[in-house]
Design a protein that fits this description.
This protein is mainly α. It has helices at about 5-15, 20-55, 65-95. Helix 1 (about 5-15) runs antiparallel to helix 2 (about 20-55). It starts with a helix and ends with a helix.
Protein backbone atom coordinates (compact mmCIF):
# COMPACT_ATOMS: atom_id res chain seq x y z
CA UNK A 1 0.00 0.00 0.00
CA UNK A 2 1.33 3.43 -0.86
CA UNK A 3 1.79 6.07 1.81
CA UNK A 4 -1.02 8.14 0.30
CA UNK A 5 -3.30 5.08 0.26
CA UNK A 6 -2.43 4.27 3.85
CA UNK A 7 -3.15 7.82 4.96
CA UNK A 8 -6.47 7.89 3.13
CA UNK A 9 -7.45 4.50 4.57
CA UNK A 10 -6.50 5.61 8.09
CA UNK A 11 -8.39 8.88 7.82
CA UNK A 12 -11.55 7.17 6.56
CA UNK A 13 -11.37 4.47 9.24
CA UNK A 14 -10.99 7.11 11.95
CA UNK A 15 -13.92 9.11 10.59
CA UNK A 16 -16.21 6.04 10.61
CA UNK A 17 -15.38 4.98 14.18
CA UNK A 18 -18.02 6.63 16.36
CA UNK A 19 -16.64 5.13 19.61
CA UNK A 20 -13.36 7.05 19.61
CA UNK A 21 -12.81 9.97 21.93
CA UNK A 22 -11.88 13.45 20.76
CA UNK A 23 -8.47 13.03 22.41
CA UNK A 24 -7.73 9.85 20.45
CA UNK A 25 -8.81 11.50 17.22
CA UNK A 26 -6.64 14.55 17.95
CA UNK A 27 -3.63 12.34 18.68
CA UNK A 28 -4.16 10.48 15.40
CA UNK A 29 -4.51 13.80 13.60
CA UNK A 30 -1.07 14.82 14.86
CA UNK A 31 0.45 11.54 13.72
CA UNK A 32 -1.24 11.69 10.30
CA UNK A 33 -0.02 15.26 9.86
CA UNK A 34 3.48 14.06 10.67
CA UNK A 35 3.13 11.22 8.15
CA UNK A 36 2.04 13.61 5.40
CA UNK A 37 5.05 15.82 6.15
CA UNK A 38 7.51 12.95 6.15
CA UNK A 39 5.93 11.59 2.97
CA UNK A 40 6.67 14.90 1.26
CA UNK A 41 10.22 14.85 2.62
CA UNK A 42 10.76 11.33 1.31
CA UNK A 43 9.46 12.44 -2.09
CA UNK A 44 11.86 15.36 -2.20
CA UNK A 45 14.74 13.18 -1.05
CA UNK A 46 13.91 10.55 -3.66
CA UNK A 47 13.90 13.21 -6.34
CA UNK A 48 17.30 14.44 -5.16
CA UNK A 49 18.64 10.88 -5.20
CA UNK A 50 17.38 10.38 -8.75
CA UNK A 51 19.07 13.61 -9.87
CA UNK A 52 22.33 12.60 -8.20
CA UNK A 53 22.21 9.15 -9.77
CA UNK A 54 21.68 10.69 -13.20
CA UNK A 55 24.62 13.07 -12.61
CA UNK A 56 26.88 10.26 -11.41
CA UNK A 57 25.93 8.04 -14.36
CA UNK A 58 26.82 10.91 -16.69
CA UNK A 59 30.29 11.17 -15.19
CA UNK A 60 29.52 14.16 -13.00
CA UNK A 61 30.47 14.76 -9.40
CA UNK A 62 27.90 15.12 -6.65
CA UNK A 63 29.31 17.08 -3.76
CA UNK A 64 26.44 16.71 -1.29
CA UNK A 65 25.61 13.02 -1.61
CA UNK A 66 26.27 12.22 2.07
CA UNK A 67 24.07 15.11 3.20
CA UNK A 68 21.23 14.00 0.93
CA UNK A 69 21.53 10.39 2.10
CA UNK A 70 21.39 11.59 5.71
CA UNK A 71 18.20 13.52 4.87
CA UNK A 72 16.68 10.36 3.36
CA UNK A 73 17.58 8.37 6.46
CA UNK A 74 16.05 11.00 8.78
CA UNK A 75 12.82 11.13 6.77
CA UNK A 76 12.58 7.33 6.65
CA UNK A 77 13.20 7.09 10.40
CA UNK A 78 10.52 9.71 11.12
CA UNK A 79 8.05 7.85 8.88
CA UNK A 80 8.75 4.53 10.62
CA UNK A 81 8.32 6.16 14.04
CA UNK A 82 4.95 7.67 13.07
CA UNK A 83 3.71 4.35 11.66
CA UNK A 84 4.82 2.56 14.83
CA UNK A 85 2.95 5.12 16.95
CA UNK A 86 -0.22 4.45 14.95
CA UNK A 87 0.24 0.68 15.18
CA UNK A 88 0.85 0.82 18.93
CA UNK A 89 -2.16 3.07 19.50
CA UNK A 90 -4.39 0.74 17.48
CA UNK A 91 -3.15 -2.26 19.48
CA UNK A 92 -3.84 -0.42 22.75
CA UNK A 93 -7.36 0.50 21.63
CA UNK A 94 -8.22 -3.09 20.70
CA UNK A 95 -6.74 -4.60 23.86
Amino acid sequence: MSIAGFLAHSALAAARDQTRTAAAIAADHDILTELFATGRKLGWAGSNLNQMTKTLNSGGDVAHIEETLADVRRAATATRAAVERINNRQKDETA
